[in-house]
Design a protein that fits this description.
The protein has about 725 residues and is α/β, with parallel strands linked by helices. About 45% of the residues lie in helices and about 15% in strands. The protein has a seven-stranded parallel beta sheet with strand order 11-12-10-13-14-9-17. The structure holds a DNA duplex (15 and 10 nucleotides).
Length: about 725
DNA sequence: TCCCCACACGTTTTT
DNA sequence: CGTGTGGGGA
């Protein structure tokens, strides 16, 4: 009898032992899912399955890494031969080996991220003379992404286009795709789409992989889209040992093409499926679980499931009615301090969750006022920073000179006298001749019409690139990245600029990433580095906990747990979000997001709503969220900020409430007020010190406007001059 | 090439 | 209110 099964509950043990045939594990929040998956992999290995025959897919790199580590602890180095990665990383690996069978790409393709492809879409719109007001680039990006996730190529999109607009969109899609191919580049969706296409059109490839992977595991199955669904289906078709794990109640990425039916209909796809439900929750108290169960029970399109726990009772859920978002933030901050003082709870054990990023501002200010250390996850992305993208662009050109998109980006970065005129001459020539941009710039004899001066600069650039390319196969990634930064003149340019400090630091950080990469289990070469950089987000290596309170959106919180969690902004129009209120299916997804939020809390949950909230500079009233009403009253402890507000208000002279003419565009017509609750404005003079909630103390440089509309220009040390409206900005005299 | 202003817009985003 | 963008001017 395997030791692996010790300590597992009967359902978990069964899920581990059931190794043959399709298996659906319906794993509720906190039911020990990761443990089951890792034990299952270890068990398979123990049963003699070769590690290279096991394919395990997760949705995040973080989950993949965690699972790798845990399996490694159980079985040792054998784990290194497992195919354990995200869908996208698996596809990238697969495509490096198999993409040339399509005859359209070579194996050294590069992967473009959302920013890269958005830029490309804008170019396409220009070339097609399409108005970017009517064909909004972001929407077009979403449209193409959705089409790809549904496995629709440009041709099929065109065939389905039955109106003018759809035909224009089809043309855009076609041009966009053409450009990707020319650049020998794939977008995220292509990784999945092309992998599926190869499996569907190359029987010999399909057979090889079908035979190879005898056991396939897929985590977070509720979030798979059509392409991912097909990928799993094709790969598993021979052995049929497909084990999927998921929780339909935690499906919150419907808007990204995730199809909840993939999990709901699994038994129909595989009639011999064994279904195992993991319903015992090891994370939260009974009070918290009852609230979660009660809320999710309001969704009609779901299979009934009830999480239970043997952690009876627990702290009641505190429901706070805040006056406004600042009051809410103050309440959260004070509660955090209380936990810290009374129970010596570390800051890292507490998290503040919200529906939309814009809510974070007030919360941050509240934390700062109380000197509470915090981390915000997923706001500014490391790999989205200009300087990082620039260096990556260099690296991608070295790896794949066909990537004109990248070459274009670095042509004059750092500035080297290659202006717009030169660039358009070069691209025109490339288009006319059918040559790649790289071929054009690296061939001085072509009649491109660029000035001799520019030509000289181009020769230097081409020389640099050839030189670096020559070294690429022999140097380690760290040295290559460093060489790019320095020899391109990039670092020198930043050093000249006194505002270049932060950027230089970020480049240093990129070097650290390159150095750490060499230590990892992938071979240290440019190909692997670029693939990794393209597919890894910085949420993955964000140090959570670590003595700081965590602030994040509910989406980012999925899969995490905290002893104490604050669920903020529970208002109709915020959460559920106003944009979903017209559509019952979308409200159900909001409810699942709420379910995810509630189940993050282990010991104590706070929920809060604000009676009034400043949105887009206007005070707006939203009623409490329906989700609050759906929580059982018996588990709630109500508190309110009204009393405090009334006391503050009594000190001020009364004034009438003046409704605005302009109605709400937010779906439920919130009532807006013209006046802020604090109408007494201080008189500011240049030279005075001002204290700001976010930027600290600064000096007033200039004052303009009068009364309510007075604005200040304030210089904050190290942060530049900010323009602030006295009426709204969180400032006071210091 | 940069800077300033007017104007529009404003969910979530594992890869 | 904030941010991003595009036009116009220096």
């Amino acid at each position: 009898m395997s030791q692996l099964l010790e300590g597992l509950n009967p359902a978990q043990a069964e899920a581990v032992r059931h190794t043959e045939g399709p298996l659906l594990i319906m794993a509720g929040a906190g039911s020990g899912k990761t443990r089951v998956l890792t034990c299952r992999i270890a068990y398979l290995l123990e049963q003699g399955v070769a590690p290279s025959s096991i394919l395990a897919i997760t949705f995040t790199n973080k989950a993949a890494l965690e699972m790798k580590e845990r399996v490694n602890k159980m079985v040792g180095d054998m784990s290194r031969q497992l195919w354990l990665s995200t869908f996208h990383a698996f596809c990238a690996r697969f495509l490096r080996l198999e993409i040339e069978s399509l005859g359209m790409y070579n194996r050294n393709f590069v992967i473009y991220d959302a920013g890269d492809t958005l830029a490309m879409i804008k170019e396409c719109l220009k070339e097609l003379n399409l108005d970017d007001k009517q064909y909004i680039p972001r929407s077009m990006q979403g449209l193409i992404s959705n089409a790809k996730n549904a496995l629709q190529d440009a041709g099929e999109y065109a065939r389905n286009a039955d109106n003018f607009r759809a035909k224009q969109e089809a043309e855009l899609y076609e041009l966009y795709q053409k450009k990707l191919v020319q650049n020998n580049a794939l977008d995220f969706d292509d990784l999945l789409l092309l992998a599926v296409r190869i499996l569907e059109t190359k029987p010999e490839v399909l057979q090889r992989y079908q035979m190879r992977f005898s056991h396939i595991l897929i985590d977070e199955y509720q979030d798979t889209n059509r392409a991912q669904y097909l990928l799993a289906k094709h790969l598993a078709a021979h052995h049929r040992n497909l084990c999927v794990v998921g929780d339909a109640d935690q499906s919150i990425y419907g808007w990204r093409g995730a199809d909840i039916r993939n999990i709901l209909d699994f038994e129909r796809d595989y009639p011999e499926t064994k279904v195992i439900k993991l319903e015992q929750n090891y994370r939260s108290t009974e009070v918290i679980l009852e609230a979660a169960n009660a809320v999710i029970a309001n969704n009609s399109n779901r299979k009934p499931k009830d999480l239970w726990t043997d952690i009876a009772g627990g702290e009641p859920i505190t429901c706070y009615e805040a006056v406004d978002e600042r009051d809410e933030a103050r309440f959260v901050a004070e509660s955090i301090q209380k936990h810290r003082k009374d129970e010596s709870l570390p800051y890292g054990d507490m998290a503040i969750l919200y529906r939309t990023n814009s809510q974070s501002r007030a919360l941050e200010e509240g934390l700062m006022k109380h000197a509470i250390p915090y981390v915000m996850v997923g706001n500014v992305k490391f790999y989205d920073r200009k300087e990082i993208k620039d260096i990556i662009a260099y690296l991608r050109v070295l790896y794949n000179p066909n990537s004109s998109q990248d070459l274009l980006r670095i042509l004059n970065v750092p500035k080297r006298g290659i202006g717009d005129t030169t660039v358009s001459k070069l691209t025109d020539y490339a288009t006319r001749s059918g040559m790649t941009l790289f071929e054009v710039i690296s061939n001085p004899d072509l009649e491109t019409g660029v000035s001799p001066r520019a030509r000289k600069h181009l020769d230097e650039l081409a020389g640099l690139l050839f030189d670096l390319m020559g070294r690429t196969p022999t140097v380690c990634t760290y040295d290559l990245v460093k060489a790019v930064m320095e020899e391109s003149g990039y670092v020198a340019e930043l050093q000249k600029d006194e505002k270049g400090e932060d950027r230089l630091e970020n480049l240093q950080e990129l070097l650290t990433v390159a150095r750490d990469f060499a230590i990892g289990d992938m071979e240290d070469n440019l190909e692997n580095f670029l693939t990794r950089v393209a597919l890894v987000s910085d949420v993955d290596d964000a140090e959570l906990g670590d003595g700081r309170v965590t602030l994040m959106t509910l989406h980012a919180a999925k899969g995490l747990e905290f002893p104490v969690a604050f669920l903020t902004g529970l208002e109709e129009g915020i959460f559920p979000h106003a944009r979903t209120l017209m559509n019952e299916a979308e409200v159900e997804e909001e409810r699942r997001i709420c379910y995810v939020g509630i189940t993050r809390a282990q010991k104590k949950l706070y929920v809060s709503h604000a009676m009034s909230r400043n949105i887009y500079g206007r005070s707006t009233q939203f009623p409490p969220s329906r989700f609050l009403q759906e929580m059982p009253e018996s588990g709630l402890d109500h508190q309110s900020g009204r009393a405090r507000f009334a006391a503050a208000k009594a000190a001020l002279p009364p004034r009438p409430v003046v409704p605005l003419h302009r109605g709400g565009s937010l779906g439920l017509t919130p009532h807006t007020q013209a006046r802020d609750s604090e109408a007494t404005h201080e008189v500011w003079r240049p030279g005075e010190k001002a204290k700001h909630g976010k930027w600290g103390v600064g000096t007033v440089v200039s004052v303009s406007g009068s009364g309510e509309d007075q604005t200040l220009k304030v210089a904050f040390e190290g942060q530049g001059i900010k323009t602030l409206a006295v009426k709204f900005a969180p400032i006071s005299k210091a």
